[in-house]
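for the recovery benchmark. C-alpha cells below, seq after
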C-alpha cells in the first residue's frame, strides 16, 4: 500500500526487484495500470487492464505516469495515474528474471521471454504474426492462467484460465462478461513448452503476455461452484493466500480482488 502524491514520485517498498507492477487507486474510479521490465518502465509504458487502449494511453489520453527507478527493494511511482495526489493506492508485484530476456525458439514463432520457473511466472513479448502460431513461455509446466494484450492497438485483454469450460473459452479483464467462446488462443490449451495464439489476432501487431501456473505452497489456480450460502464453499489451496482473484464465469459479474495488504 502507498499514498499518492502527483507532485513528487513516491517510493514504494517491494522487498525484491519487481518485473511486473500492477497498481490501482483505492479511493478513485481510476483505471488499473500495469508496467513490466520486458517492455521497460517509465513514461508512456503503462497498459490499462480496465480499458482497451494501446500502450501509453489511458482511455485515449496520453499517460505520462508510471514506475521509475525500479530497484532491488523498491520502485518510484509518479504522475497522476500511478500516484494520484492523496489517494490510497495498492500495488501487486511479481518477480520474473530481473528484466533480462532471452529468445525462445520452442514455438512456431520465436518469442522474447523472461521467466521465473520457481514461482511459475513468465512475461512473453509476442511478435506480429499471420495465421495462428505457437510460442515458447519459458516455464517448466503448462500455464494455467494466461493474459494477453496487443500493445500497439486498442484491443481487449484476453484471458485463458484452467477453470474455464474448455480450451476454446475466454474471459476478459476489461469487461464483466461471462466466459465466451473465442479463438484468441487458437482453442488450444498451453503445454509445458508453448502456448497458442489464434488467427483472430493475426496481423494485429505485437503483444505482451503474462503466464502463471500453480506452485505447491505458493500459488493455486482452479475453479469452484457457488452454493448461495453466506459462508460459501470451502476451497483448499494448501497455503494461506495473500492475493485472491475471483471471476464468475457463468454471469456478467465484476472481477473481485482481495489481498492481505488491504
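predicted aa per position
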Amino acid at each position: 500500500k502507498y499514498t499518492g502524491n502527483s507532485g513528487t514520485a513516491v517510493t514504494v517498498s517491494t522487498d525484491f526487484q519487481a518485473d511486473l507492477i500492477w497498481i490501482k487507486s483505492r479511493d478513485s474510479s481510476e483505471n488499473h495500470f500495469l508496467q513490466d521490465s520486458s517492455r521497460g518502465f517509465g513514461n508512456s509504458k503503462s497498459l490499462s487492464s480496465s480499458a482497451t487502449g494501446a500502450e501509453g494511453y489511458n482511455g485515449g489520453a496520453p499517460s505520462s505516469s508510471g514506475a521509475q527507478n525500479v530497484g532491488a527493494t523498491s520502485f518510484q511511482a509518479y504522475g497522476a495515474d500511478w500516484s494520484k495526489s492523496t489517494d490510497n493506492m495498492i500495488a501487486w508485484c511479481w518477480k520474473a528474471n530481473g528484466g533480462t530476456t532471452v529468445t525462445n525458439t520452442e514455438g512456431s514463432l520465436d518469442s522474447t521471454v523472461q521467466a521465473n520457473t520457481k514461482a511459475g511466472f513468465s512475461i512473453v513479448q509476442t511478435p506480429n504474426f499471420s495465421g495462428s502460431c505457437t510460442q515458447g513461455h519459458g516455464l517448466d509446466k503448462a500455464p494455467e492462467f494466461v493474459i494477453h494484450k496487443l500493445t500497439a492497438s486498442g484491443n481487449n485483454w484476453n484471458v485463458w484460465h484452467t477453470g474455464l469450460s474448455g480450451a476454446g473459452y475466454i474471459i476478459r479483464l476489461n469487461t464483466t462478461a461471462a466466459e465466451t467462446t473465442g479463438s484468441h488462443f487458437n482453442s488450444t490449451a498451453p503445454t509445458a513448452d508453448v502456448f497458442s495464439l489464434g488467427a483472430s489476432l493475426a496481423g494485429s501487431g505485437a503483444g505482451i503476455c503474462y503466464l502463471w501456473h500453480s506452485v505447491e505452497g505458493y500459488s493455486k489456480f482452479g475453479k469452484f461452484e457457488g452454493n448461495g450460502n453466506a459462508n460459501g464453499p470451502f476451497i483448499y489451496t494448501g497455503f494461506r493466500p495473500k492475493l485472491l482473484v475471483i471471476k464468475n464465469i457463468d454471469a456478467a459479474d465484476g472481477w473481485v480482488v482481495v489481498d492481505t495488504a488491504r
